[in-house]
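Data availability (excerpt). The following record was deposited with the supplementary files.
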Amino acid sequence: MRPTDRFLHVHRLHGHRLLSLVALAACGGASASKPAADVAPLARPQPPGRVPCFNDRTAPLEAVAMYKELEKYAMSWMMSDDEKPPPATYGSCTIADSKITAADGTPVAELSCGVRILVPGIRDDLGFELGTGARGQDVLDRVPGHPPLTCWANGPTQSRCRFDRADDTDTDTSSYVVDGSFPGDALTGADAVAFFAPRELVELDVSIWCH
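Predicted structure:
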């Protein structure tokens, strides 16, 4: 896991805004209005794999329920050694410093102001899982009349897209990471939709209280 990947939400914590965005690599990306030629058409969803951390379960873990169960570990990487909860088991996984890690060392999820989903078998707040072929268009279809969409860099080869928050709420919406980059700092509106729609979801970040 790249250090710059740590739950890239814009959120408010203790009165300070934290913006964990990495620098944008502008070269080699798709144009704002035309997806890259190597973007595959919508894939047929594949059967979900085994549930991470719990080989005896068949239903995916629910991200919101996971957060409620493990909330004391959220943001624990920022706590002092005296404050942070000690490492513990979560099924066959280990949770420490906000990170859930499989027995073989594979990063599974991370708890911050929500849940950063890194592997298949965990369902987000809209019912999406990684590894099922879900793409940006599926997200757009599941949010009829969706708010404006914004995409920005998530490292040199990925982009993160998120609907704008509603005027009557101070909580950010969940965000979705896809492969691919573009020139400039950000895409908005129709350009963001055109970029996001054909690309497969490679990371899901469920916002619980992110600001």
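Summary of structural features: The first strand starts at residue 10 and ends at 13.
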